[in-house]
Amino acid sequence: MAFLSQLFGSKTSDRKSKSNDTIEAIINDVENKPFGVSESNVLFAGLNELGGYFFFQTVIVGDLNVKCKNGAQLYFSGDDFKLKLEADMPEFESENSDIKGRNVTKIDFQIEESEVKKLENATLRSIQLKVKKHDILFSKYVVIESSDEEE
């Protein structure tokens, strides 16, 4: 029986057995500062403006693997702050990376100029991504800087 589970994989094995990838490894491999982290994905994000239109650009690196035709929603929650953004394009899909079990998913979200200022001034607690059957909750990534290392 053990031979069959080695050959076909065990149904009781958890998702971690597919990859040895960790949040720390993703953060160390990517040059940009993370915006949020979940159990198995890292959210990198930033605001961008093109021709008077504002976009909240996201790149999710981790085990999220999706091919979507119906868009996605991004929810921000914070101290007296809630914001929902809709994906700019309904169709997108994850790309495989060179590291086993790691995917890269790029999604741009529409954001109004008035919402940009509110988002920049908000104290965020969580960011939630809903796409297809995936519901990923990111916590705001906070870097604890040590002044000892810089001296």
Radius of gyration: 18 Å
- SSE pattern, N- to C-terminal: HHEEEEEEEEEHEEH
What is the residue-mean pLDDT, rounded to a whole number?
84
Count of alpha and pi helical runs = 4
Dominant shape = globular
What would you note in describing this structure?
The protein has 151 residues and is of the alpha+beta class. Helix content is 18%, strand content 42%. It is built from 4 helices and 11 strands; from the N terminus they run ααβββββββββαββα. The strands form 2 sheets. It has a 9-stranded antiparallel β-sheet with strand order 6-5-10-11-1-2-3-9-8. Strands 4-7 form a two-stranded antiparallel ribbon.
Furnish the topology, listing elements before pairings.
Layout lengths: L1 H7 L14 H7 L6 E2 L3 E10 L2 E10 L4 E2 L4 E6 L2 E6 L5 E2 L1 E2 L6 E9 L1 H9 L2 E8 L2 E7 L6 H4 L1
Antiparallel strand pairs: 1-2, 1-11, 2-3, 3-9, 4-7, 5-6, 5-10, 8-9, 10-11
Which labels suit this protein?
151 residues, disordered N terminus
What's the gist of this structure?
By secondary structure, the chain is α+β, with helices and mostly antiparallel strands. Helix content is 18%, strand content 42%. The protein contains four helices and eleven strands; from the N terminus they run ααβββββββββαββα.
